[in-house]
Amino acid sequence: MMVPSDLPALAQTLLARLGVPAATTGARLVISPVDGAVLGAVDNTPPEALDALIGRAQAAFLAWRAVPAPERGALVRLLGEELRRHKDDLGQLVSLESGKILSEGLGEVQEMIDICDFAVGLSRQLHGLTIASERPGHTLRETWHPLGVVGIITAFNFPVAVWAWNAALALVCGNALIWKPSERTPLTALASAALLARASVTWAATTGRPVPTDLSSVVIGDARLGQALADDRRVPLVSATGSTRMGKALAPRVAARLGRSLLELGGNNAAIVAPSADLDLAVRAITFAAVGTCGQRCTSLRRLIIHHSVRPALMARLRTVYERLRIGSPLVDGTLVGPLIGADAYQAFEQALEQARAEGGVVWGGGRVTVPGCEGGFYPRPALVEMPGQTAMMREETFAPILYAVGYDTLDEAIALQNDVPQGLASALFTTDLREAETFLSAEGSDCGIANINIGPSGAEIGGAFGGEKDTGGGRESGSDAWKAYMRRATNTVNYSHALPLAQGVRFDL
Ligand code: NAD
């Protein structure tokens, strides 16, 4: 396939098909990382407009919470149908705006569809517990209720899937939403919102009542809008995805008003390769995890901890594979590595490699690749770096395709290295030794929210809870019981007897 030469025209065509009016006149320019072209221009949301919007979202919440959950699920089912219908268009737009390869752009939309399916089922399963009461003639149970307006702040690298993780669950849980997408990727956000608006029209026609006005909206702007959401008492939950720096700035603001935050922050993910590892499988898994999405996933593999006995063989194989990586336009079939998001990301990539050399590293790869027709894009050659040990700079997340390798002798040493970073998102062990695998997954093993065996740290399915510990923020989203973060829990005691026994045998005779 040829690279489409007029990306702005393609973006506007896709937007029109997705139901977004022409986005060409606003103050905020949207730059494609593919070739540096201006894809469009959108309006910023003024801060005072956000204030009024939160008020309207709260009114929408009061109406939506009274709609039975399975009916709320029907709206999310319709959103899933719109996404199925427009998967190609939205997937392409994701590639244009975020620079990920087309297959990953489509995969991101598939992830939205998957979470919609999950949430539809969930809409009939928002159940609490019935608990044995210590008092005769009493029942004890818990119920789950909608929370209110949920603020959703998202990062550029998963411009739409992270919204869908939050939105699908929050909507079936009975909440209203306000989404502040990354300022780098507003077009895909407007497109996703347009699909939800279409689903809302169908829902209204089917149920005979409208979806409350401003149940879900998008605000466009930078960190200041995120801060306004963080500070507003009418937003009981702020779910924020992005860098640890962002989380550390945002969380104290939400906490200052005793609100809740759900944080999905940076990772610094490692894989351990043990002597018994299947190296064929490990090479493929490591390469996908390290260079996929151009190293711009929160779960990207950044550190390789290799047993000394297999280190030379594995590194030689990885160098061979790295030399063959197809780097180029993400819109061309067969490309494996696309561009970084922009010049600042490329500069951070170069600086990290310089620092690695200063700390004793030997670097293979690095540098900028010129892609014909995409000269305005920042295409890095993924780097493999042999380090003398886990030095200071390896403890930081550089959002680029750099894979540092260190050696180890014992599994305890490898696990200690894996855990000795501030972040705690995703981890992996390649081994065919059951004892090693179970040790890694035990309480004394990986300290991450995600711990895998014989599969890389990236590429999670929506069925499990997603998130990490320490500087990754502690939040859990997506599957399992992550929905509970979007609801409030009430404990109910009902006395159906004629007596009034007090708990713990307390006597209070009048
Ligand atoms: P970023 O932190 O620069 O921005 C993320 C979002 O936060 C944007 O919408 C931004 O406008 C907003 N923001 C920034 N500062 C803010 C503040 N002080 N208050 C409120 N909002 C603020 O991140 P990015 O460059 O877009 O994305 C890359 C980062 O996101 C990486 O660190 C990556 O690991 C992380 N990430 C984490 C996950 C996860 O699930 N753990 C998923 C995707 C990305």
TrEMBL record:
Homology family: Belongs to the aldehyde dehydrogenase family.
What's the Enzyme Commission number for this chain? 1.2.1.3
Name the UniProt key words of this record, in alphabetical order. Answer: NAD, Oxidoreductase
Instruction: Give one GO molecular function term.
Output: aldehyde dehydrogenase (NAD+) activity
Active site residues of this protein: E264
Q: Does the keyword Membrane apply?
A: no
Q: Which SUPFAM superfamilies match?
A: ALDH-like
- Keyword Nucleus listed? The answer is no
Q: Please give the subunit comment from the record.
A: Homotetramer.
Please provide an example of a Pfam family that matches this protein in its UniProt record: Aldedh
Q: What name goes with this protein?
A: aldehyde dehydrogenase (NAD(+))
Aldehyde dehydrogenase domain boundaries: 29-489
Main EC class the enzyme belongs to: oxidoreductase
